[in-house]
Amino acid sequence: MVKFVTFLLLTIVRLAVAFPAYDSIAGLSEREINKYITRNGVAEIPNPPLPLPKGQDGLKLVNDPAHPFIAAGPNDIRGPCPALNTLASHGYLPRNGVARPDQIITAVMEGLNLGNDFAKFLCYQAFLMNGNPLTNLMSIGMKTPLTGQDPPKPALVGGLSQHGTFEGDTSMTRVDAFFGDQAVFNETLFQGFIDTATKFGFNGTYDVNAAAELRNQRLQNSIQTNPQLVFTSPRILSAYSEAVFPTIFFVDGRLNNRQLTIDAARHFFDLQMMPTGFFRQPAPVNFTIVDPLVSFLFNKHPFSPGVNHGKNNFVLQPQTPPLSDFCGIYEDIVLRVIPGQYPKPTGALKDAINKNLGFFFGAVSAEHNCTQVFPFGRD
Ligand code: HEM
């Protein structure tokens, strides 16, 4: 590991000398990349972490002395996900905001008690769209040279803030990319979050009823105002899941009543900080808990996927799978989105992507009866 980090740092230093303009780093040809791989190899890809051992997977103080909050410094990267931002600020993730998939999975299991399958599903999906398969590193925010040498374009390696991948329109506390920085917390939208909780949530909390209203409101607002709105697979799934997550994971596990107070919401979304004395969920949370809540939101305000052709002109996209078609969304990610960035990977790059695709499918199939698909063949 030490060897790899040293190698990465040396590589970055070498690149900084060889390619003074940042842009040109991303534009190396496939031949140059292959030469690079031949010379340096690719990073070792560890297997996904196992579930937390029985007896250590329960209620636990997670804002503890071993994980003190330290606000992100000027060189620390933060992005669109309030959970990962917070985990980085408490040291569950590297505080600079650049991490390997296995570190992210361990962090969300340890820090918030995501179930192992669910953690792997989120993480490998994001990594395949936003991470660097050569160095096995991903930024939880903007693109950074800290993730090392990029594979050839059209691979983006854009980090979680990369619009149009995992990050997308109609977020609850971030503006659509059309209007500005899609990754940064927006106070005006957070006031809308509070208003919705006050109006629809039990005792002014953000609960599943508030979530259903806010999710619909954010979609309707983008339909009316964002001429470039895209609301299709895979974004539809993350948008609906992320509306539900705070009612589960940001609620103190001792109470665990799916009612998020505004104070706790302020801590996670804005301050990127766990509330004082915060306990994680009392048991690992997998699809069996999340799926019915997502369906509840959808059934309250059903929608069909689509894109805007100009403001208030939402054109349905019947070729993209609907929210209810989980396996269709999995196939869309694997057969359309990922080959969009890696049209014909070869050699070690292909092996690395295939390995991550295998991990991704492992998580997908744990609680859903989907069939594995192979964008680059089976070998
Ligand atoms: C491996 C795990 C995770 C990854 C890779 C991930 C990634 C992301 C990304 C890329 C976004 C931006 C989507 C967008 O709004 O455009 C996001 C948003 C969000 N994430 Fe995560 N996330 C993870 C785990 C979690 C967990 C455990 C929670 C628990 C509460 C969470 C809560 C949220 C919420 C609430 C948003 C929406 C923010 C908003 O709409 O304002 N995420 N996440």
Describe the structure.
The protein has 379 residues and is mainly alpha-helical. It has one domain (2-367): Chloroperoxidase (Orthogonal Bundle), CATH 1.10.489.10. It is 46% helix and 3% strand. The chain is built from 13 helices and 5 strands. A 3-stranded antiparallel β-sheet has the order 3-4-5, with no helix packed on it. It has a two-stranded antiparallel sheet with strand order 1-2.
Short description:
It holds the Pfam family Peroxidase_2. 46% of the residues lie in helices and 3% in strands.
Mean pLDDT: 93
Oligomer: single chain
Report how far apart the termini are.
28 Å
What is the general shape?
A: globular
Rg from alpha-carbon coordinates: 20 Å
Which percent band covers the strand fraction? under 5%
Instruction: Give start-end ranges of low-pLDDT stretches.
Output: 1-26
Element pattern in H and E: HHHHEHHEHHEHHHEEHH
CATH fold label: Chloroperoxidase
Biggest sheet: strand arrangement? 3-4-5
The CATH class designation is Mainly Alpha
- CATH superfamily descriptor: Chloroperoxidase-like
Major sheet summary line: 3 strands, antiparallel
Bound molecules: protoporphyrin IX containing FE
The number of helical segments is 13
CATH architecture grouping: Orthogonal Bundle
Instruction: Work out the number of β strands.
Output: 5
Helical fraction equals 40-55%
Domain Heme haloperoxidase family profile: 65-295
Keywords: Heme, Iron, Metal-binding, Oxidoreductase, Peroxidase, Signal
Family: Belongs to the chloroperoxidase family.
GO molecular function: metal ion binding; peroxidase activity
